[in-house]
Amino acid sequence: MSQFHVEDGRTSGPNHNDRVAGILLVEDDPSVRTGLELALTRQGHSVTTFATGEEALDHVRARRPEIVILDVMLPGIDGVEVCRRIRKLDSLPIILLTARGDDLDVVVGLEAGADDYVVKPVEPRVLDARIRAILRRLESASADRVSFGDLVIDRGALKISLNGREIHLTPTELRLLLELVRHSGQVLNRRYLLRAVWDHTHVADSRLVDACVQRIRAKIEPVPADPVFIHTVRGFGYRFSPP
Amino acid sequence: MTWVPTGLRARLVITFLLVAVTASAMVAGLGYQLVRRELLDRAERAAVADVRDTLSTVTLPVGASDVVWPSDSTVTDDDLAGLVNALSGPGRTVIMTYGDLQHTSPGGRFTMSDVPDQLRWQAGRRLVYQRLRIGNQPWLLVATQIQRVNQSGAKRATGLTAYVFVSLAEEEGVLFRLRNALAQAGGITLTIALTVALVSARRVLLPVRRLGVAARALGSGDLHVRLPVRGKDELAELTATFNETAAALEHTVSELRTLESLSRRFVADVSHELRTPLTAMTAVTDMLTEDAAGLPDDAGEAMLIVVREIDRLRVLVEHLIEISRFDSGAAVLRKESVDVGDCLADSLEMRGWADQVKLTMPVGLTFSLDPRRFDVIVANLVGNALQHGSPPVLVRARVDRQGLEVTVRDHGRGIPEQALPHVFDRFFKAGSDRARSVGSGLGLAIAKANAELHNGTITVERREPGTLFRLGIPRS
């Protein structure tokens, strides 16, 4: 079992900032695993690596990382399945490493609850930027509470509840919901949301937004197929307007 | 079914009709003539016999002795009336003359002026008859002078002459009906002939037409097309030959397709296999670049070469994977309504080209397209202009009734005229200065494939100076 902790791997790399993430990297190819581990460590993250999904799941249960980077093609249970099982336990951020850039992989992965994905071969700078973008979603906003009927959003505590029952959203889902709530009644297009939530400064995949909205609807909408909170505006984007 | 007249059909129909018309005209004509002659002969014979029989019983004292002159005779007008009465019947007019005496049957329509002179003259010697048309009615005129055999056995004319007009209207009516019946039969025969001609033309032409349709289908790529072989005629043989040819063609094409898909599959597999080691290498290139500075000069330089080439290899493999996705038909289009200006600006900004490119376009230009594929097209066109052309690089966009048009113009030396048709070919390098470019050689091919996925086009033209690429995406 290659488990590798770097207590202080920070150097004067160009991309580091104050934030150091405890990353769990699951990748079966030893060279890719070690290469990414070296690069992420150099960028200042604390990296733990595993070669299989089963080992990774055990570790997640035992010691919660801040973020998981998952290869999709894994021996045994694949990355998408690992993602699905982690989601049952936890809302921690997950980035998928898709080897094929295959559209199906991406869609299935996002539906399974992944927050973002990168296509191999990925440049470490890009991966680092995505990690930091996700971590920034955890730090949030003003500490106030807003409620829309049965839905109560606690922006400070990053919690929401529906009918008094607490609902777990991933940081990405919460950030997207907050962004929509902040512009309640306005239509936000996918490009805007990708920039605001994912920090994607380039032309990114709008399916990230679509999949995330679907996941939020599944959690907060009484009837996800007939949403009352988040409305789709065809050809433009989404609008939050509470009933 | 649409019936397009063909030469063969017309010829068949005309031949059939000619044969039918000739045959039925001949049969009907001959039959009619036979019937007509027989009918009229019979009527004539009956009339003549009747006249002869009636006259043979004449007991008038004419020519019984040697008294031959009518003036000597004792025949009176009443005698003639009796004879007329004996000869007349329905539809008949009888005129009897004897010397100066003349008697016409009551209600008779004719006079001696209706009797042709020649007949009058001939009737002096023997019994004559002639068909006449008087007042548009057919008549048979039987004329004779009663003769007596005298004691010496010589025939002597008595001067008592009978002219009997027998109506042939009934016979003509029969013949008229016969003609009608024959004409109707002819019409029916003609219709049957036409039907038979069309049916047999269809029987001949249908397989020919089917062969034509099948051959066109074969030509347009439907290699499964086969035709049922019916009968043992030449057309059946032709159909069988067609089927064999199609089968052979299908076999060959499917072999070629298998080979082609194998080779494409191979390219795709190789690209995918290259991806894993490239991922490992790419992961550490940033570190190597940082650390190269700390190495001895030549080792540092070697390190930088490795890093640079890894980067090229990465682009090449990404492009190979992208193009093999187009080859396998796995590329899908996900259109959404976007702000074209935002897309273009993002595309340039993300690659650090915003300062090197002048972007001209109206504000708020929205269009339905796949933003990621559009980004790929723009990146490849602008990247190509920046690499191979000279500044200024101008990008313009506009939307008109046809759709979106984006042009990318550089002011370099341009592409040689003879190379223009090939700039979108894979791994095509225009000119020796481009032999070792940083591009994969697939960029423009990928741009074109992405445009075509939008049902759009990319064209290239020479400008003085430079080159103009024009991307057109139609409205959906």
Write the layout of secondary structure elements.
The complex is a heterodimer of chains A (243) and B (476).
Chain A: E1 22-26, H1 30-42, E2 46-50, H2 53-62, E3 67-71, H3 79-89, E4 94-98, H4 103-111, E5 116-119, H5 124-138, E6 145-148, E7 151-154, E8 159-162, E9 165-167, H6 171-182, E10 187-189, H7 190-198, H8 207-220, E11 230-233, E12 237-240
Parallel strand pairs in A: 1-2, 1-3, 3-4, 4-5
Antiparallel strand pairs in A: 6-7, 7-8, 8-9, 10-12, 11-12
Helix pairs in contact in A: 2-3, 5-6, 6-7, 6-8
Chain B: H1 7-56, H2 77-87, E1 92-98, E2 101-104, H3 117-122, E3 128-134, E4 137-149, E5 155-167, H4 169-219, H5 234-292, H6 297-327, E6 336-339, H7 340-350, E7 357-360, E8 366-369, H8 371-388, E9 393-399, E10 403-409, H9 443-453, E11 457-462, E12 467-474
Helix pairs in contact in B: 1-4, 4-5, 5-6, 6-9, 7-8, 8-9
**Which sheet architecture does the biggest sheet of chain A show?**
5 strands, parallel
CATH superfamily of the largest domain in chain A: Response regulator
Runs of chain A in which pLDDT lies below 50 for 5 or more consecutive residues are 1-18
Strand order of the largest sheet of chain A: 2-1-3-4-5
CATH architecture of the largest domain in chain A: 3-Layer(aba) Sandwich
Q: What structural class do helix, strand and pairing data of chain A support?
A: alpha/beta
- What do the pLDDT scores of chain A average to? 80
Distance between the termini of chain B: 34 Å
Order of helices and strands of chain A: EHEHEHEHEHEEEEHEHHEE
Low-confidence stretches of chain B: none
Q: Tell me about the largest β-sheet of chain B.
A: 5 strands, antiparallel
